[in-house]
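User: Quick one: structure for sequence A, then sequence B.

Assistant: Sequence A:
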Amino acid sequence: MSAKKRGKSARKRAIAFLLTLQTILIGINAKNRIQQGDSPIEVLIWMINQCIPVLKQATSFQEKQKKSLLPRHRPFKNQ
């Protein structure tokens, strides 16, 4: 495996780890909010609002990954 591919692979794993960590921290914070007396519905709405940016980041990551995997086409030459 080339150094460039290893670098991309490590970057993908790091991004996936950070997105997972963000999601876990949102869940922990939600549990704390419920324990402090917030209603479960309020906490659920808060969680959804917190997860939207995480989902946007994951989607952006997937789109960049797909673009990097697409084959590059050569320009068409008229004969």
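Sequence B:
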Amino acid sequence: MTVKSLRDEDKLPLSKVVKLVHKKMDDILRVVDALNLGRTEVKPDGVYRTFNDGNMIRVATGDFRKKRIPSKRIKLF
């Protein structure tokens, strides 16, 4: 199903959208691996980039632990 207008975008099934996103992501990862740009991984002590040959380089340091939000209230105004 192709979306032709903004009114039609809600008619697209969610499962189809998820499959298309996964397909595009696989294409992107294949290109990144072919160019040996490295995959980015966030760990608690920093951000690392891992290349095809196994080399790992720290891109950024810091505290990247998962944070919990005690309340999910959003104030718009």
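The chain has a mean pLDDT of 82. The first helix runs from residue 14 to 34.

User: Thanks, that's what I needed.
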